[in-house]
Design brief:
Number of helices: 19
CATH superfamily of the largest domain: Ribokinase
Bound molecules: ligand NPW, adenosine-5'-diphosphate, potassium ion
Structural class: alpha/beta
CATH architecture of the largest domain: 3-Layer(aba) Sandwich
Largest sheet: 11 strands, mixed
Strand order of the largest sheet: 1-9-18-17-16-15-14-13-10-11-12
Number of domains: 2
Strand content: 15-25%
Number of strands: 18
């Protein structure tokens, strides 16, 4: 399990650790780790050109001490001092080692830029001249290594309010920060390298977590000798309408590939015919009236892909949500429940799987605001609706009351194409039917779906059906990792 922490959590742990150590020890450890990563990135330190962007706080101190170590190894290091004050001892050590102070031009001639403008002590958008220096680093040809977090990225949320450094590597101190795992911040961080400064024993429960492949392998059910199709879990899929037929085919495909014992599809004439011809394995029921009465027992429902938003769809949704098994609410069913919240009044678990636009309809926040603050909005929605929320997008976020948010970054932007969300709904539904709770089903499905997207894309466009077809390979890979 990967774990990440807010700035406040890190600061509290640092204080506890610092109290037991001679002054300056932590910064020395941080700087040594930072210098080592810079040296590896440079390949040859002697004769290389390094520019340090130095802010007024301890983040700048880290950069100066690391700069001193690189200067002692023969690098030509130039520091651009951005703050009205500078870490005094760090600057002394740096100058003593042969480092120089320079203007912004140093950035343009550097092989490597070290972003020590701000770390966990930053508040709000970068002010000038910090913002200008961040833009200069982004425009320069050099490799950029961020200290702790890319400056301009909020360490606790991943928000980016203005200019922000786009790093190729982020050297994070003590423990990863939440903002390094959640977009838009995560996209600015590049590869994240952790420097162990001894914080481990002082860290609280994490703010967010991310499942590794091995974690997913542990959680995934495997059929046993005594398994049969009913015991493995039957998933019901209420999807498709005479207008939208493809969504049902894709959701059923996702569920079949993710290990459901059986997939039962219910819908109108056209989607039922499509599902029947694509998936002879599925059991289909053409609904004569908008109700699931008498279609047979399932262990979980997927409700919504392509269902439509009219009166007929509303009746189907009410009928599915009146059942006593977990229900995944996706796509058109999200529109239905945002119009009629009373549909969510039930005791069995609910998993909602919106993208930012759908979440915007559900909780009334603007779409752009949700994209900018994915964590806080997913958390707020889970609390307000009393459900598990899987918020889709470049980083997928799974939120449930009283549990750390799980984030997933296995995906690829090639997944941004029509129908991949329907596949995700099917995969998640199959995991629910196999007995995973909403939190685990959603986070395992997001992991597998992202990985399947990578396998299917392999650097070129994919279509949604390819993603479903790659789910078994994704499952094999997580088992290999486990
Ligand atoms: N503590 C430890 O043991 C260890 C700490 N470590 C390191 O310390 C870092 C935290 O250091 P920190 O607390 O000094 O804060 P930091 O991130 O440098 O920012 C403060 C400075 O930024 C400025 N500033 C703020 N907002 C701004 C804005 N929007 N735009 C522009 N400027 C802004 C602010 O200016 P002021 O408001 O004072 O004018 C002040 O000068 C941490 O990330 C890690 O790298 C490691 O060495 C491990 C051991
Ligand atoms: N930029 C991106 N990077 C990674 N994954 C993405 C990106 N954009 C979309 N996705 C993923 O693709 C899927 C799209 O789902 P959705 O928006 O519901 O599309 P549709 O309704 O067409 O099926 C989600 O799993 C989402 O997380
Ligand atoms: K930084």
């Amino acid at each position: 399990m990967r774990t990440a922490y807010t700035a406040d959590q890190i600061r509290a742990a640092e204080h506890a650790l610092m109290a037991r150590l001679p002054e300056g020890t932590l910064m020395q450890r941080a700087a040594a780790g930072l210098a080592a990563v810079c040296a590896t990135a440079l390949g040859r330190v002697y004769g290389s050109r390094v520019a340090l962007l130095v802010g007024g706080g301890d983040n700048g101190g880290d950069a100066l001490y690391a700069g001193a170590l690189l200067a002692r190894r023969g690098a030509r290091v130039e520091a651009v001092l951005a703050g009205s004050r500078t870490h005094e001892r760090g600057l002394e050590a740096y100058l003593l080692a042969g480092g120089r102070v320079a203007g912004v031009m140093a950035v343009e001639r550097a092989d490597l830029v070290v972003d020590g403008l701000v770390g966990i002590g930053a508040t709000g958008a970068l002010r000038e001249p910090y913002a200008e220096l961040a833009r200069a680093a982004n425009a320069a040809p050099a490799l950029t290594v961020a200290v702790d977090v890319p400056s301009g990225v909020d360490a606790s949320s991943g928000r980016v309010a203005g200019a922000a450094v786009e790093a190729q590597i982020t050297v994070t101190m003590g423990a990863p920060k939440t903002g390094l795992l959640v977009d838009p911040g995560a996209a600015r961080a590049g590869a994240v390298e952790l420097v162990d400064i001894g914080l481990g024993p002082y860290l609280p429960a994490p703010d967010v977590t991310a499942l590794t492949g091995a974690d997913v392998a542990d959680l995934l059910p495997r059929p046993a000798t005594e398994s049969d199709k009913y015991r493995r879990g039957v998933v019901g899929i209420a999807a498709g309408s005479d207008l939208y037929t493809g969504a049902a085919v894709l959701a059923v495909g996702g569920a079949l590939r993710a290990g459901a014992g059986m997939v039962r599809h219910v819908g109108q004439h056209a989607p039922v015919a499509q599902v029947r011809s694509h998936w002879p394995e599925a059991v289909v029921t053409e609904l004569e009236r908008p109700s699931i009465d008498g279609v047979g027992r399932v262990q979980a429902w997927v409700l919504g892909p392509g269902l439509g938003t009219g009166a007929w769809a509303h009746e189907v949704a009410a009928s599915v949500l009146a059942s006593d098994v977990p229900v995944l609410v996706d796509a058109d069913a999200l529109t239905l429940v945002s119009r009629d919240r009373s549909l969510l009044r039930r005791t069995a678990p609910v998993l909602v799987t919106p993208h930012a636009g759908e979440l915007s309809r559900l909780i009334g926040a603007g779409r752009a605001e949700i994209e900018a603050g994915r964590l806080e909005h997913a958390r707020a929605a889970a609390a307000e609706l009393g459900v598990t929320v899987l918020l889709k997008g470049s980083t997928t976020v799974v939120a449930e009351a009283d549990r750390p948010v799980r984030v997933n970054a296995t995906g690829t932007s090639w997944l941004a194409t029509g129908g991949t969300g329907d596949v995700l709904a099917g995969v998640s539904g199959a995991l629910l039917a196999q007995g995973l709770d909403c939190y685990d089903a959603a986070s395992c499905a997001a992991h597998l779906h992202g990985l399947a997207g990578r396998i299917a894309a392999d650097g070129a466009p994919l279509n949604a059906a390819d993603v479903a077809a790659a789910i078994p390979e994704a499952i094999r890979r997580v088992h290999d990792e486990g």
